Every structure is written in structure tokens, then in C-alpha cells.
């Protein structure tokens, strides 16, 4: 919900448009009732997307669901395959973790074990993209200059898992490119994903990456963010308690201690 508030503020400050997307690339975790709840929350808060509005989702008249974009993703895979950048991987997450010697708090890094094994891209194994050992440098609109090395962070990037789900990293990168997104506003917990997404987009053919802004999170403890999936209070709960949309929006901004003033962050 905080993300929605800041997305709308950013778009209006830049005379831009808001594109709404349902990121249901993980078929095991996606549910129609989850989508309906998101649409209801947006309508109640008064956030009507400019591209793929909520009524278009309800009527089935848009291309805003990742689950409907299989052809788009397969076309992107074809680009990578023709460049010799993609390969099959049969490693399980458990096996990758067992061979990982990074600190417990660090991101799980793949050791590129299958890079030269020549496994086919079939439905029963994962698909990965080669990540060269180079830095990606970019400017975050709030945090300033950033430098990341995807090869050191995560190794060769998984784009499709062993049960056929497209990964978040791949699906959003392809969609941001194909849907002409030029500003991405998201939580600081996704900052580490930025370098690999810029790298992947360039490999696909995107010459100029979008701008990024990573905002603070609403925290329930110094180390744990507020999350509806953990049963924390959501917009629907506050609405049932009699909160107004304006009060919800003001509270979200106040909890982060950060907002846009006169068009500046």
C-alpha cells in the first residue's frame, strides 16, 4: 500500500502515467482472491491506474497479468538463446545452499555448476542466464550512486524454475522493457535486484535502463518489515475500523518519515 502511495506521487510529480501490473508469475502462490483484494484496495484508496485500470482487470480486457504473457517471455528467451547466453540447470535450491560458503546473512549465490554441461532447455529443469563478472553502476533517485556485481551477488541468473514458473527477476525485467516503463518505484528491500535487472535488460536489447527509486519500508521491528503475508494489518482491516483513505495514506507516509515535498524527494 505504501508503494502505491509513492508510485502515484512520483508519477504525478513527473507528469507521468501509472501502469498497474499483477505479478502472478508464481502459479503456486497466486490466487484470484489475492488479486481481487488488491483491486478493491486501490479503488477504495482512489488510486486508478492510467494503464490497465482496475475495471479492465475485472473485465479481462488488459495485458497486465504476468500469467497471460507467456509468449512475451518465450520471445525474450529466444533473444538470449540466440546470443548463447542461456542454459539448463538441474541444481536444487538445497544443493546450491549446501555448497554455499557465504555468511548466513548473505544472498544465496549459485556457483554456475551447470554453465558448461550442455543440458537442454526442457520443462523439468531450471533456465539460467550467464552473468559476466562486471559491475553495474546506476543512480538511485533517493540513495544516489550505486554499484553492484550480479555475478558476485547471485551468480548466473535463474529466469525459469524447475516447475515452469518464470522468476520475478526475469518477468519484471521483460515487462518493464516491453511496457516502456521509465521509472520504477519500489521498496529498498529490492535494491539488490537492480544491477542484475539492468544487466539482463541490456542483454535483451534495452539500450537505456529505467530510473529507479527505492523507498523506505514500514517496519514492525528493526529487522522485519510489515507484511500482509505474515498476518499484519492491511488496508481492508483499517477500512473496517473506520479509517478514511486520507488517514491511511497519511499514516503510511508518516511511518516511513519520508515523502515528496514540492515535487522533490
How does this structure look, described?
The protein is built from ten helices and nine strands. It is α+β, with helices and mostly antiparallel strands and 265 residues long. Strands 1-2-5 form a three-stranded antiparallel β-sheet. The chain has a two-stranded antiparallel ribbon with strand order 3-4. A hairpin with a 2-residue loop joins β8 and β9. The radius of gyration is 19 Å and the shape is globular. The protein starts with a helix and ends in a 9-residue tail after the last helix. The model has no long low-confidence stretch (mean pLDDT 88).
Give a brief outline of the structure.
With 265 residues, this protein is of the alpha+beta class. The protein has ten helices and nine strands.
**E-strand count:** 9
Helix and strand element order:
HHHHEHEEEHEHEHEEEHH
Task: Give the overall shape.
Answer: globular
Instruction: Assign the structural class, choosing from mainly alpha, mainly beta, alpha/beta, alpha+beta, or little secondary structure.
Output: alpha+beta
User: What can be said about the biggest beta sheet?
Assistant: 3 strands, antiparallel
Order of strands side by side in the largest beta sheet? 1-2-5
Rg, Cα atoms, Å: 19 Å
Strand content: 5-15%
Quote the average pLDDT.
88
Q: How many H/I helical runs?
A: 10
- Detail the poorly predicted runs: none
Separation, N- and C-terminal Cα atoms: 18 Å
Helix content: 25-40%
